[in-house]
DNA sequence: CTGAAAGCGCTAACAG
DNA sequence: CTGTTAGCGCTTTCAG
């Protein structure tokens, strides 16, 4: 049986409101009783019950972070940014991994809301997870990270994917490549949308025809890149360069190319997106478009905190904050 | 203002216990009222308050998982195993990342307990995090993962590190290497302890002298491996082979060796520990000792669930479950 | 400085 | 089938 505030009150022979004051370092108790209470609390191995406190205070000191794939090194970097910024503000963050499973995303979202976390950061599986869009009000401060539904009414922070896609493609073009491919996770999703848009814009701008044979969509996992490029090469389809929707896809593509006995960038050049830590690994040395991962996480938290404050001040019309960060071109050895 | 069960009761004109029954699909309500209640709940955008429920039921349906570094691909694999097994049993899992910060570990641990999660899995920063060891009772079902304090009274699941270390070292020896180094994160920690012990046992068994110049301890991050090997080579210290405490250290070592213009395994052979996904990446192709990561996570959850059940049955003396899994030797190109 | 009392939102007997 | 009543553990007025 776990000790409660009442147990302490009883053994101390005082009221439990005094115990509460003593334990929370509020004024209104003599130093003497405070000491006494704290001593007893320790002896009883008392642990405050945050769920009871949460019930009355309507605050839990917790932020929820929902990510699609912690196995992709991109997301842990984001998580770190979130965590750091959150603990600066005195919040704990709970990370939920959906594994690209939309039903898990929904379930975690509901769960976090029911658990009354103070704010939620969601990096959605797909920009079509409308779960939230339909609600009239957001039941809790909320911000999208990265993959954002179009015309959302909620706050978001993302990297300018169109610009990133343009940058990547233009780089390829300026290096002299013409037969350029685009391999990515499923379309219809905002970032791809954006990255693909940027790709098309660049191709258009430089008057280069897009060959549909070179455009392929799979999922976001390494193996997908590997399979797609192998399948392409097997079918005799040779782009001169490919722009991959993210870095782990690019890694899969690199692997696929090499196993076919071809070399990078001589036979096929490659550029990725994200700049995950392994991209700079010498054996990989991947050219890519960098997203400011830590910054993204931190900004998301800042938005949440701000919403929390204005909310507490009785502010009603919380306008959504929209942050679009600039990507950077990182040139390494693969293009 | 968020709608509560009372609001529903009021607008439906019934008692709120009936509402509770209807919403939770308990028997004791007519199908008619159930429908009515559910309809109203939807209109009011009612979201159950899990903290209130948790307070009365003394259960939160949540497991806590504390990991030292989600940036090391080893841990996400564990997290996946935990998650899968947990959702099978109907639990949500909250992941906390300590970033090798002991004070964060303590803080998260306390937090999870205060939040009354139903069970905690802790992969400690160091086997010296005694935080829990001192308590008379564990306030919540608890299991160590991987890095376990010696002679703990709590449950744990880990890989047989001594055996793993022995396996790695024996492999090196049998391949003909004699000047063998060991580079790892800080000692005094159980797994290293174990891995180092295995290393020493193998060296001893084959009557090979250990050269202290080849034994180095840094931290567990990639850069540490890189720095150490570069420093060694720079100082003219050339082992023929090195056993790295984990795979990302090994990757750092690989990088360091190559940047010094040496080649692997011709100049220096390398073997790691963990078998992270990137180890099998062709450009890395790291020989290593595999830990059954997913299995570890799942086993940890199983232990928790079992404790929960015996606890609920009024069982008092929960004996700790101790699981030691076998590592596997994975031979690739680096030794 | 201290105690009594109310109540957060919900579940769970217990009557009817 | 339905309502009434406690009460989970804690904070927070409001008196004293």
CATH architecture of the domain at 5-48 in chain A: Orthogonal Bundle
Largest interface: A-B, 52 and 53 residues
CA-based gyration radius of chain A:
25 Å
CATH topology of the domain at 5-48 in chain A: 434 Repressor (Amino-terminal Domain)
Instruction: Write down the overall geometry of chain A.
Output: elongated
Biggest sheet character of chain A? 6 strands, parallel
User: What would CATH call the class of the domain at 5-48 in chain A?
Assistant: Mainly Alpha
Strand arrangement across the biggest beta sheet of chain A: 2-1-3-4-5-11
What is the first-to-last residue Cα distance of chain A?
A: 64 Å
Oligomer: homodimer
> Which band does the percent of strand residues of chain A land in?
15-25%
Order of helices and strands of chain A: HHHHEHEHEEEHEHEHEHEEHEE
Report helical residue fraction of chain A.
40-55%
Tell me how many strands of chain A there are: 12
């Amino acid at each position: 049986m776990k000790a409660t505030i009442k147990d302490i009150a009883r053994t101390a022979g005082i009221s439990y409101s005094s115990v509460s004051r003593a334990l929370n370092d509020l004024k209104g108790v003599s130093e003497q009783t405070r000491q006494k209470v704290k001593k007893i609390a320790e002896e009883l191995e008392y642990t405050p019950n945050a769920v009871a406190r949460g019930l009355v205070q309507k605050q839990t000191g917790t932020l929820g972070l929902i990510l699609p794939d912690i196995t992709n090194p991109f997301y842990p970097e984001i998580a770190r940014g979130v965590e750091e910024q959150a603990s600066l503000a005195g919040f704990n963050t709970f990370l939920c991994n959906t594994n690209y499973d939309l039903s898990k995303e929904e379930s975690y979202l509901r769960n976090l809301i029911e658990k009354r976390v103070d704010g939620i950061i969601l990096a959605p599986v797909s920009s079509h997870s409308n779960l939230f869009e339909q609600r009239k009000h957001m039941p809790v401060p909320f911000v999208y990270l990265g993959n954002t539904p179009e015309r959302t009414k909620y706050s978001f922070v993302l990297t300018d994917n169109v610009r990133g896609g343009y940058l990547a493609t233009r780089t390829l073009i300026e290096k002299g490549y013409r037969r350029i491919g685009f391999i990515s996770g499923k379309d219809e999703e905002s970032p791809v949308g954006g990255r693909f848009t940027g790709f098309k814009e660049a191709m258009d701008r430089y008057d280069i025809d897009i060959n549909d044979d070179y455009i392929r969509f799979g999922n976001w996992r390494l193996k997908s890149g590997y399979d797609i490029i192998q399948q392409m090469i097997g079918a005799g389809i040779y782009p001169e360069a490919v722009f991959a929707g993210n870095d782990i896809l690019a890694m899969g593509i690199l692997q696929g190319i090499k196993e076919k006995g071809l070399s990078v960038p001589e036979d096929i050049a490659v550029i990725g997106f994200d700049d995950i830590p392994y991209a700079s690994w010498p054996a990989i040395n991947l050219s890519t478009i960098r997203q400011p991962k830590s910054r993204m996480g931190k900004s998301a938290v800042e938005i949440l905190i701000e919403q929390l404050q204005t909310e507490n001040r009785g502010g009603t019309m919380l306008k959504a904050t929209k942050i679009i960060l600039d990507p950077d071109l990182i040139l390494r050895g693969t293009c």
